[in-house]
Write a structure and sequence with these properties.
There is one protein chain. This protein has helices at residues 2-27, 31-40, 52-61, 97-105, 151-156, 164-171, 182-188, 204-217, 224-241, and strands spanning 107-111, 119-125, 132-136, 143-147, 177-181. The protein is an alpha+beta fold. It has two domains: 1-40; 42-241, no CATH class. The protein has a three-stranded antiparallel β-sheet with strand order 1-2-3. Helix 3 packs across helix 8 (204-217), helix 3 (52-61) runs antiparallel to helix 9 (224-241) and helix 8 (204-217) packs across helix 9. It is globular and about 50 Å long. It starts with a helix and ends with a helix.
């Protein structure tokens, strides 16, 4: 009896072990699927930025008002650093927001093998200045992540009244963000277009379109001088196409 029971018990153990292995494999996504999940999420909203005609129509509909509560602005009101936990473009794809911006905006891109979210190297053709800025993961960079409508500017235009969740979403919305030259970004700060425009005039059209699109998307106000400056920026779209 003891001799006959041994093979049956061994077979049962083998079946059980095989079943556990199959279930474990089913629960572990293959590396290629992980990579697809990280890179397949759209890094911009469909139809963004708006066309020049759309932006002009949007600008005409924006509420004109003076900025408010500028003295109460704090960066921490928009969350502590980057967050992937938002419903904005690129959200919940497992990648840091800054890495998403680099993957979208850099050319000659080289991503990490173990973590495809991480950008190892690339080149930014800076939209604001036209400079070509190299990027390396292990070296100090002249590239920063710019909120086109800066957090301070958004605060003055209505974000002061938002929920903390909406402000976190705004701060990590890839439609709001661009990779840009660090020194130029410092100069831009939270200035509106009546106070600052990109040094590279060839970008004025798109800058006006992006700015207007962001203000429309988040129902932010514009000041009267800001609206006039945006009209001037959008007027360059006609010259660019002509």
């Amino acid at each position: 009896m003891g001799t006959a029971a041994g093979p049956r018990a061994g077979a049962a153990l083998l079946v059980a072990a095989t079943t556990v292995a199959v279930l474990a494999a089913a629960c572990t996504p293959p590396r290629q699927e992980q990579r697809g999940a990280a890179t397949a999420v759209p890094l911009t909203s469909p139809g963004f930025p708006p066309t020049a005609a759309q932006a002009r129509d949007q600008l005409a509909r924006l509420t004109v008002a003076r900025g408010k509560n500028w003295q109460t602005y704090q960066r921490s009101a928009f969350g502590d650093g980057w967050s992937d936990d938002t419903d904005a473009p690129g959200g919940r794809n497992g990648c840091d927001t800054r890495d998403d911006v680099l993957r979208r905006d850099l050319k000659d891109l080289r991503e990490g093998d173990r973590n495809p979210c991480v950008v190892l190297s690339g080149v930014l053709h800076d939209p604001y200045t036209g400079k070509q800025l190299p990027y390396s993961y292990r070296r100090a960079s002249q590239i920063q992540t710019d909120h086109v409508v800066a957090l301070g500017a958004a605060w003055r235009a209505g974000a002061w009244s938002w929920t903390a969740r909406k402000r976190l979403t705004y701060a990590n919305d890839l439609d709001v963000l661009l990779a840009a030259d660090k020194e130029t970004n410092y100069t831009k700060s939270s200035k509106t277009p009546d106070k600052w425009k990109p040094p590279r005039k060839e970008y004025w059209c798109e800058y006006g379109r992006r700015w207007t699109g962001i203000k429309t998307k988040y129902e932010l106000t514009v000041t009267a001088p800001e609206k006039l400056a945006l009209q001037d920026l959008l007027a360059t779209c006609d010259r660019a196409s002509g």
